[in-house]
Design brief:
Structural class: alpha+beta
Strand order of the largest sheet: 1-2-6-5-4-3
Number of domains: 2
CATH topology of the largest domain: TATA-Binding Protein
Distance between the termini: 75 Å
Largest sheet: 6 strands, antiparallel
Number of helices: 4
Mean pLDDT: 82
Number of strands: 6
Low-confidence stretches: none
Order of helices and strands: EEHEEHEEHH
């Protein structure tokens, strides 16, 4: 898969040559892509009959981000009548120094997206959601124990 990379002072543009979108209908393909990116914490900026634009991040997080997955970026898909998809990813690099390893991260993200579009497999977010739920439940449990101990300590100090 050929991906053109253009790098300027404050942005990176990854443009993929048109590729075959698979055997699903256009509506099903757009729905799958939308679900895929919503599961990755993107938001849908624009959805049309033959276009989909998703985005993630903001300029504030760009300045303080240590992970490339947190940078502000827009990914747009356009679909033509020949079952071809054109993908353009624009990454805002304001406040960041981008090395080749970070460029490789974004190229890999585009390749993973292309692979997802061309295959019939469904992307599973259950492991990620279960891990978040487990950590959240643990923190709530820990917080409730701390509050309970604080109340008991307060009662012991002031009433005995």
């Amino acid at each position: 898969m050929l991906i053109d990379t253009k790098k300027s002072k404050n942005q990176i543009i990854l443009e993929c040559k048109p590729f075959f979108r698979g055997i699903d209908s256009l509506d099903v393909t757009i729905d799958r892509i939308e679900k895929y990116f919503l599961g990755k914490s993107f938001i849908v900026d624009e959805r049309g009959k033959d276009k989909l634009v998703v985005s993630k991040g903001n300029l504030f997080t760009n300045i303080f981000a240590f992970k490339m997955s947190k940078l502000k970026r827009n990914i747009s898909f356009s679909f033509d009548q020949n079952d071809q998809v054109k993908l353009i990813s624009v990454i805002d690099t304001t406040g960041q120094v981008i090395r080749q390893s970070e460029m490789d991260f974004f190229i890999l993200e585009v390749k993973e997206t292309i692979r997802f579009i061309q295959t019939k497999e469904e992307y599973s977010f259950s492991q990620k959601q279960n891990k978040k739920a487990t950590i959240g439940n643990y923190l709530i449990f820990l917080f409730s124990i701390i509050i309970t101990l604080g109340v008991l300590l307060y009662i012991i100090i002031f009433f005995f």
